[in-house]
Design brief:
The chain is about 25% helix and about 40% strand. The chain is of the alpha+beta class. It folds into two domains: about 40 residues, no CATH class; about 55 residues, no CATH class. A four-stranded antiparallel β-sheet has the order 1-2-3-4. Strands 5-6-7 form a three-stranded antiparallel β-sheet. A hairpin with a 5-residue loop joins strand 2 and strand 3. It is globular and about 40 Å long.
């Protein structure tokens, strides 16, 4: 039996589900604001590879240490953590 389409959904908390489509493209969409991040397989690999560094920067920021982390993950997409907001920002620049 062949599957014509495979979609995997994971709950990232709140209103942010993660979907992986059959062509291995990853979408993270905030259902409340309708904002989304799009990952090709290489971009997703770079993002996952940076998770340890991202977690470290979020921890430093959450205890009051100054940090300004930015990582290019492919195309025009960047991941950043700033000490003003101890969260992960995935954005197109």
């Amino acid at each position: 039996m062949l599957l014509s389409k495979l979609v995997l959904s994971l709950d990232l908390g709140g209103t942010r589900p993660l979907q992986i489509h059959e062509n291995n493209e990853v979408f993270i969409r905030d259902l409340a604001t309708k904002k989304c991040a799009f990952f090709t397989p290489p971009r997703w690999k770079r993002f996952v590879g940076a998770i340890a560094d991202i977690e470290e920067q979020v921890q430093l920021s959450s205890v009051g240490k100054t940090t300004h982390y930015m990582q290019h993950i492919g195309g025009t997409w960047h991941v950043s953590v700033d000490s003003k907001f101890p969260t992960v920002d995935i954005r197109r620049w």
